[in-house]
Automatic annotation (TrEMBL):
It comes from Gordonibacter massiliensis (ex Traore et al. 2017). Residues 44-100 form the 4Fe-4S Mo/W bis-MGD-type domain. The keyword Iron-sulfur applies. This is Molybdopterin-dependent oxidoreductase. Keywords: Iron, Iron-sulfur, Metal-binding. It holds the Pfam family Molybdop_Fe4S4.
Length: 770
């Protein structure tokens, strides 16, 4: 062991022996106050969170007068967002105080599903009905007949599993998200390669941000299937990229659409949707051919490089150029830029998961990062871990809730659809669960608990299958902010959830800091936080020995019990940044046994992935055509010649949310699709025309937006449309199946059980004749 190594190992040893009871923080909270009076307002310094929906926890100042939230501002002192807010928080009052907000628990006779005959009831009555109905399902069919669902990572991540445990069901997960195709495929597959979740370094681990002397801006940021200035996805903010660019970062963008950031890139790959893995493997091939890979990193810290360098010879630049529809010279240029850069990082997006073999796309892109040694270096990929060991909010930790409920009676009945990777990940298969609702195989789902989830409008593929399946259930509960199409279609009991300004909580989805959400106003009507609904409802299903708290603050104190914070102490400082180290793999800070290396089965970064071999797949990342594409299904492509990608995020909407918010709706009044003017003209379509998009599965009606920003022959369609302005009476479930692009997307995962076709389908377009 070299001297450098020895001293790094000692440093790691010292860091590991720190006591968790005295949280070591980087930021100094002296002088920071969480509430004050100003010009007749009481100001609350807090962290935003869903609802309404978002992945983030931007620092906000809430100005309250006479119990009413009058205005919201970004907190300039919060290191996370440094005072900036996106349109949805600036307009949060329009959602918070909207007249359509659910304010009271409601019940409805089962035979009235789809009709607006809800009646207000008390919380006790609602809980009584749920207890009675869920117990009846459990007694007759077993706990596994209940499916507890959530939507994307709102402030339900981590808490949802508790609801499932209270019922005793092993079936918990995203509601009808085909192939769990949001984050799951990428983070699980790359964890097999790298032993953790790694994210780009934008200085977000430092409370003094870009000024921290340890930080260096990444030389190249690869923005891959992601539009971060709009989406601010998964705990990162798009303006961090702009700030990095001001300090020297350059961009390489992979996107079929010219996004704002693509317009500022050194290299922009306008690739055919669904072909990303081919490009990643060809870039690897070229970097090896040019001998631009990081020899030290590859030989000291990686497993299977020699075989990998042979494997990628199957993916020459010419193959990727042809497959992706991009110039060969551009691939060579990008490979040289990435290979010669001091640092590079992968800003990946959900487009990676939204192809059938999305599980493997993430792996191929990670290989590029390993090849160039961009792990744990300034400006590279950094481990993203739960702060202060507090993982419940960022990702569910298996044992967080273990002492809160009796053990799940039949864990082996979890429906992972027979997919080995899902079994290994201890995850359900939403695709298999929908099938079992339809066929009763291997057993039938009879009851649903749907929380932060609007599957008919948004999350589910093939809503035309989901709607009848939900309406055939024995019993359904929906917990939401609004009467959604899903709630109107199927809820027997509908429970009103509180917005973030109306409740307390702790932050999640960001591994850099831990913070508190403090309550600024009383909840509207009788709304309650999701967390409170879960433990109040759940406590009906457990004995006193499993009740560890009496109120919400007690819940958070319980969760924080090993961090050295209480809810109150966290609230007072509003945020806390744990200490941070680069090069953790050299210091023994990644592996549980404290030895240097990565926390993988081999101790190294796995170019050769033994787990993939065990699952029966290629141990190396490979490229496969999407099942529906001009290359893999030319016959289908004769009828449906255009490539369809869907769901590119819009500023003002979070999925199916915000259609009720007047200012957000003004930004985007109608369902639209982007189409190149030449493709539009060839199909007799002009800008603004209402059109039908259709394929062998279904159709949807959207308006054409012609633009040269989109790849020719590709159509990029909005997702998640419904029309709350129509009201619940006209029998159309707010028109949810009229402009619903998911009718064209199959509920069918890739071969690993993960990955889906939301961004790689085929369709044709035609003008709607008036
Ligand atoms: N065609 C297509 N479909 C897609 C996608 C795509 O790109 N294309 N993207 C997919 C992806 S990545 C995802 S993650 C899913 C998202 O799917 P979902 O997360 O299911 O999103 P929504 O349909 O908006 O449903 C969320 C519901 O939660 C409610 N809500 C918001 N905040 C709260 C809260 O604090 N408490 C409670 N109880 N309810 C709340 C909202 O009112 C809304 O009704 O959609 C998927 N669907
Ligand atoms: N405002 C807003 N923000 C959101 C959400 C929202 O609904 N609204 N949803 C949240 C959720 S759950 C998620 S998962 C994230 C997702 O956020 P992003 O990862 O940014 O996802 P998208 O906007 O769906 O797609 C990003 C880009 O991928 C491009 N693209 C489409 N198909 C392909 C392809 O096959 N390959 C490549 N390389 N690019 C492709 C699109 O043109 C688009 O510019 O956003 C989160 N943030
Ligand atoms: S990203 Fe936007 S909606 Fe989300 S917390 Fe930040 S400002 Fe609010
Ligand atoms: Mo997502």
């Amino acid at each position: 062991m070299s001297e450098e190594f020895e001293s790094l190992a000692l440093e790691g040893e010292a860091l590991r022996s720190e006591s968790a009871q005295v949280p070591r923080t980087q930021d100094d909270p002296k002088g920071r106050v969480c509430t004050w009076e100003e010009n007749g307002y009481t100001v609350h310094r807090t962290n935003a969170r869903t609802g309404p929906g978002c992945h983030d926890n931007c620092g906000v100042l809430l100005y309250v007068k006479d119990g009413v939230l009058e205005k919201i501002e970004g907190d300039p002192e919060n290191p996370f967002n440094q005072g900036r807010l996106c349109p949805r928080c600036l307009a949060v009052k329009e959602m918070l105080y909207h007249e359509d907000r659910l304010k009271y628990p409601m019940k409805r006779p089962k035979e009235d599903r789809g009709k607006n005959t809800f009646q207000r009831c008390t919380w006790d009555e609602a809980y009584d009905i749920i207890e009675r109905e869920m117990r009846a399902v459990i007694d007759r069919y077993g706990e596994e007949a209940i499916w507890v669902t959530q939507g994307t990572g709102r402030d339900i991540n981590g808490y949802g599993p508790l609801m499932a445990q209270y019922f005793g069901t092993p079936n918990y997960g995203t509601g009808f998200l085909s192939g769990i195709a949001c984050y799951g495929p990428r983070i699980f597959s790359t964890a097999l390669k790298s032993g953790g979740l790694f994210v780009c370094d934008y200085s977000q681990f430092f409370p003094d941000r870009y000024d921290d002397p340890r930080w260096e801006a990444s030389e190249y940021i690869l923005i891959w299937g992601n539009n971060p200035v709009v989406a601010n996805s998964d705990g990162m903010l798009g303006h961090w990229i702009v700030e990095s660019m001001k300090r020297g970062s350059k961009l390489i963008v992979m996107d079929p659409t010219l996004t704002w950031l693509a317009g500022k890139a050194d290299v922009w790959f306008q690739l055919r949707p669904g072909t990303d893995a081919a490009l990643a493997l060809a870039l690897c091939n070229q970097i090896i051919a040019d001998d631009l890979y990081d020899h030290e990193f590859v030989s000291c810290w990686c497993y299977g490089f020699e075989e990998f360098s042979e494997h990628v010879k199957d993916y020459p630049v010419s193959f990727a150029a042809e497959t992706c529809g991009v110039p060969e010279s551009l691939i060579v240029e990008a490979a040289r830029k990435i290979g010669s850069a001091k640092s590079a990082c992968l800003q990946w997006g959900v487009a990676m998961d939204h192809t059938s073999e999305g599980f493997i796309t993430g792996m191929a892109c990670f290989d590029l990062m390993a090849l160039t040694g961009n792990f744990e270096n300034p400006g590279g990929m950094l481990l993203s871990e739960p702060c202060f060991g507090m993982s419940v909010t960022s990702s569910p930790r298996g044992d967080t809730w273990d002492e809160c409920t009796p053990p799940i009676p039949h864990p082996e009945l979890k429906n992972h659809g027979g997919y080995k990777p899902l079994e290994a990940m201890n995850a359900i298969s939403p695709d298999a669960l929908l099938e079992s609702m339809e066929t009763g195989e291997p057993y039938k789902i009879r009851a649903m608990w749907i929380q932060t989830n609007n599957p008919i409008a948004c999350m589910g593929a093939q809503p035309q299958r989901i709607l009848p399946a939900l309406q055939a259930m024995d019993f359904n509960v929906v917990v939401d902010l609004f009467l959604t199409p899903t709630a109107l279609a199927c809820a027997d009991v509908l429970l009103p959830a509180a917005c973030f300004a109306e409740r307390i909580g702790i932050t999640g989805h960001q591994p850099y800091a831990l913070g508190a959400i403090s309550q600024a106003i009383e909840p509207l009507g009788e709304c309650k936080s999701d967390q409170r609904i879960i433990y109040e409802m759940g406590s009906r299903f457990v004995t006193d020995e499993y009740k560890h708290w009496d109120d919400e603050e007690g819940l958070y104190d319980y969760l924080l019990r090993d961090t050295g914070f209480t809810y109150e102490s966290l609230k007072e400082r509003t945020w806390a940044y744990p200490e941070f180290e680069y090069y953790k793999y050299k210091k023994g800070l990644l592996r549980p046994d404290g030895t240097p290396g990565f926390a993988t089965s081999t101790g190294r970064y796995n170019f050769y992935c033994p787990e993939m071999a065990y699952f029966g797949f290629s141990p190396f990342a490979t490229y496969e055509e999407p099942p529906e594409s001009p290359v893999s299904s030319p016959d289908l492509a004769k009828d449906y010649p255009l490539v369809l990608t869907t769901g590119a995020r819009a500023w003002g909407f979070f999925h199916s949310e915000h259609r009720q918010s007047p200012s957000m709706r003004r930004l985007h009044p109608d369902p639209t699709f982007l189409v190149h003017p030449e493709t539009a003209a060839a199909n007799g379509i002009a800008d603004g025309d209402w059109c039908v998009l259709e394929n062998n599965l279904g159709s949807a009606k959207l308006r054409a937006h012609t633009t040269v920003r989109i790849r020719k022959g590709t159509v990029s369609a909005d997702h998640a449309w419904w029309f709350p302005e129509r009201g619940p009476e006209d029998g159309t479930l707010f028109g949810v199946l009229e402009s619903n692009i998911n009718q064209l997307i199959p509920m069918r995962p890739g071969k690993t059980g993960m990955g889906a076709s939301y961004k790689s389908q085929l369709c044709r377009i035609s003008k709607v004749e008036e």
